Amino acid sequence: MGKQRGKAQGRGFAFRRKQKIERQYRKFLKKGRRADSQQGDQFTETYPDHLKHLYLAEEEMLKKRRRAPDDSVLSEEKMNKAVESVVTEGNFKKKTANQKAKEEYEKIKAERARKKEEAEKRRQQREEAQRLYKQKKMEAYKVLSKKTKRGQPNLNLQVEFLLQKIQQNT
Description:
- The protein is mainly α.
- Helices cover 78% and strands 0% of the residues.
- It has helices spanning 13-43, 52-67, 72-93, 97-144, 155-169.
- Helix 1 (13-43) crosses helix 3 (72-93).
- It is elongated and about 130 Å long.
- 0% of the residues are buried.
């Protein structure tokens, strides 16, 4: 059997870190409360007479907000959500080297695929152009190589072919 340390199972470094953050947050809240109460006490006597009623009203509103019942369970849940959101935001901002390498690989792969497709298109276009060129040449050869019954070149067909060629060019 493995060594057992004095900790309950499932309470590793993440749990301790969470507790530490919770303690820091509570400490921060306590400091904020102390600072607010000290500020209120400092300036209560030095309000100008013509604005004193405004300052007093504002102070009462702040006291009411502080007295509002906060369920400790709800505040803990809010704090946990805040901690989780900070952690998840960090994950979205920073990418690991492996993630960067994967993205780079995907980019290169996509670029290669695009180049391959373009090369295939160019090859097909070239083959089609060659096929059309050969077809035209073959037709011209057939027309120009026709012979009469006596084996003489058929000049009538040759002249018609040249006439068509001239008409197409103009």
